[in-house]
Amino acid sequence: MIFRRYLDAVGLHGLAAAEAAGLHASEWYALSLLDLEGSLTSGELSVRTGLTTGATTRLIDRLERAGYVRRGADPADRRKVVVEPVPDAVSGVEAIVGPARRHIAEVIARYTPEQQEVLFDYFAHAAPAYREASEEIRRSAGKGRGARRGGAG
């Protein structure tokens, strides 16, 4: 129950932050990925977000119109599009996430350095576990959609 409340609070914060930035949740997530990675090809962004290539193109269009990202050619393969965050625009996101960072820093400061190591070890291992769980959900949902479509006919 406590863990579910924590996850719900994190999810709610993500939704509120996206809304404050004038973005949809998927756009906020993509912007976060780009901020962490520096740049991704449109294909990599599609895979990482779980969106179709068409939906990813529309997402990039919206982020570009909003001034958060820019497109460029991949220097290694000019046929590919590289999407990179616009530093000045992304730095404006700091104002949105600042309160959460401040509050979480206060929470983490309550723990000893040894306990903080355990917390950060958890974060380091939990993030990939959640990504894998997300992929499992997408794979099973994709199978379910096809089965429902076929059975509805």
From TrEMBL:
SUPFAM superfamilies: Winged helix' DNA-binding domain
A single GO molecular function term of this UniProt record: DNA binding
Name this polypeptide is given: DNA-binding MarR family transcriptional regulator
Residue ranges occupied by any HTH marR-type domain in the UniProt entry: 1-128
UniProt keywords, alphabetically: DNA-binding
Membrane-spanning segments: none
Entry keyword annotation includes DNA-binding: yes
Pfam families reported for this sequence: MarR_2
SMART domains: HTH_MARR (SM00347)
InterPro entries referenced in this protein's UniProt entry, alphabetically: HTH_MarR-typ, MarR/SlyA-like, WH-like_DNA-bd_sf, WH_DNA-bd_sf
Example GO biological process: response to stress
UniProt key word DNA-binding: yes
